[in-house]
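Example 3.
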Amino acid sequence: MNVRCPECDAEIVLPKGSVPGEIISCSECGAELEIVKITTGGAEIKTAEIEGEDWGE
Amino acid sequence: MTKVCLLYDRIRPDEKLLIEACKRKQVTLKLVDCKRTVFDASNSSKPVDFEVGIQRCVSYLRYLHVNAILEKMGVKLVNSFEVALTCGNKLLTTIALEKANIPGPKTKIAFSVDSALEALNELGYPAILKPLIGSWGRLVALLKDPKSARSILESWDQLGSSWYKVYYLQQYVATLPRDIRCVVVGDRVVAAIYRTAPPDEWRSNLSRGGRAEKCEVSEEINELGVKASEAVGGGVLGVDMMETEDGLVVHEVNHNVEFRRTIAPTGVHIPYLIIDYALGLAEK
């Protein structure tokens, strides 16, 4: 399944087994992108959230 | 068939391993992206489509607030609101560990730069400054002397967030450039690794380039790890220990333990154990 990078418009092939919430990188511009939704018709991605001060393990 | 819900705000390799483990164990899994879900705080009815939740939000605030609502509905969670509340805040963790007589580095809290410098004079140098919340070594600073300490504390004062106006100061006790990460599942340490800092770094966090190697789970490590886990309420936890001249000390307990880099060195398939633990919780 292919999507377009929202930062540089490059074509990105989603890895097999991708799930919403997963982070991928655009090989063209290096942007960190989050998979928002995957349907039979296609996928939606957006620029990933920047690490927050309350993030951790 | 027991239904498990994976609550998340980002799918890391750890969450993918949990998803895969559920598939292999034929456990029905519901995925809930907490960022994109509305939670009804007024509703007290138990959800019908899952029996137990594995909470994996990387955001401490999301983790806590989602858990508060789900627990009100009667959902059992790995880990609970109380456990996360304690572990997500380093001072609350220190207090819980102290209450249980678990050895840890001497710690002081101050609320201004001058008070922090006073606290550091009592602790001695070098000392460590940590944010109350957060992980992965973010903003953790080694304070070598009063001059560098003042510069770092004053920089923190300019960061804007109220969290950085609470100075959590700890004695530097490590005798080796490494610590021990124990993964506790329920009543035992299931795996442990040494995390060794890279040559140009003093922090041993794996996210900072630390190297992971198997650490044999001795009786002492298991006992201390389980005791630390119980002190904060128990569950699936990452207990971090340091080797000091006076023996092992616990410096952190993590409520949302990242386990993927513990699997290869130890050969322990931790996701399976987490799923089993969650299923056991659902049956209680």
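The beta strands of chain A are 2-4, 11-13, 23-25, 32-39, 42-47. The CA atoms of residues 3 and 9 of chain A lie 9 Å apart.
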